[in-house]
Dihydrolipoyl dehydrogenase
Amino acid sequence: ADQGVKDVVIIGGGPGGYVSAIKAAQLGLKVACVEGRGALGGTCLNVGCIPSKALLQSSHMYAEAKHAFKKHGVLVDGLAVDVAAMQQQKAAAVDGLTKGIEGLFKKNKVEYIRGWAKIKSATEVEVSTSSGSTTMVSTKNVIIATGSEVTPLPGVPVDERRIVSSTGALSLEQVPGSMVVIGGGYIGLELGSVWARLGAEVTVVEFLDHIVPTMDGEVRRAFQRSLQKQGLKFKLSTKVASAEADGAGVRLELQPSKGNGDSETMTADVVLVSTGRRPFTKGLNLEGVGVSTDPRGSIVVDEHFQTTTPGIYAIGDVIPGPMLAHKAEEDGVACVELLAGRSGHVNYNTVPSIVYTWPEVASVGKTEEQVKAEGINYKVGKFAFMANSRARSVDDTEGLVKFISDAASDKILGAHIMGPNAGELIAECVLAMEYGASTEDIARTCHGHPTLSEAVKEAAIATAFGKAIHS
Ligand code: FAD
């Protein structure tokens, strides 16, 4: 290892940490990235975004083969699921990508230090390796990018076999007969979808009276109906008081989330706890170096990502804001740009969020409920994929595109898409918002035909001019 003083030591090799390490090196800084888990890529690559998308794809292909192939004239005999092979393809994708980051580190001259970091001061980081030795790394700055972990749910002890977190749900060796998903956020719905498609009887238990609370209400209701059609069951306004694994499976005790209605019991082969994540700062010695956290455990930072201790910065899931990989990356890039004496900025109004179920749901900016609550004078335009020629030709017509724009200026305030490839389609809306565009700007932009993106254009036409062409 290089013994010289670093410009910056980054703690954590997730999307926040590894991207800022590469960017810092590209900006000419001398940088080391410390990661304890034995592989780069953090939660996202190892037990989050990437493995979940691999299993979503495998299970989607199976569901298509089962439900859609015949109509397209593709006949398959003896259709079956090989979970081991699915897990193998998932593991290969994860392994290839984590090794890829190691390659990028070498190429960009980022020093990769394997081990767990403890901050001794703003200029000294102690790293304990798995072999038990410790080394001290001297640096001018420290960036904390230690991410998040599953928040435990009282009364529901995770064993990662029958009562699982998202990590266990990504590694099941067989399709459970029944599964209860506690928490109707995007992680629960994605992983619930995976196992439901493969044959599990899935029930989502949600404390609130609706799923994914951050979603536009109209889109959310359509989304829930779609998931119900696919066989997912929902128990809303319900809380899980306890869950206990015994020989046969898991016994759960459910109660209405409000009032003192009767409790009921339920059994399931597997229970997935997906009620949220919390910042992970264990072992960093934050108190010792004067780095403050808020009541939720997030590290407090100023607009330049500096913590309450000069020279120590924090980015990604460990600071406030949406816990998303691309948000962590944006934080990281802006943080090192500032460290390198340049300008760095993140526009948190244009961070997209995507649910990778089928149909996908993607959004950016404000929901209709939000603009209403803020008293903004707004207009709405929509377009259904049912009227989009590409969606019709491939027979994938569920969902809609919805724009919300300022009534006077037509500036886009929010875009919400439920439909095929919504996660890719939202990028155009994000770019438009980043450029301060109006829906008329999108309406007057030529879109290729026949593409799903024409549904975005049509929804923009509906917003700008009151009427779409094809509806
Ligand atoms: P992390 O990725 O959590 O990385 C932090 C790293 O720091 C870890 O590898 C950890 O080992 C290391 N570390 C911690 N402490 C120390 C220490 N003291 N010393 C050394 N190393 C340390 N986001 C999306 O945008 N899209 C998705 O589709 C998506 N899907 C998800 C699916 C699941 C099932 C889960 C759980 C999450 C998903 N996320 C998704 C969220 C995403 O994974 C996180 O937002 C993202 O990983 C945060 O990046 P980060 O760099 O802040 O932290």
User: Anything to note?
Assistant: The mean pLDDT is 97. Residues 165 and 399 are 30 Å apart (CA to CA).
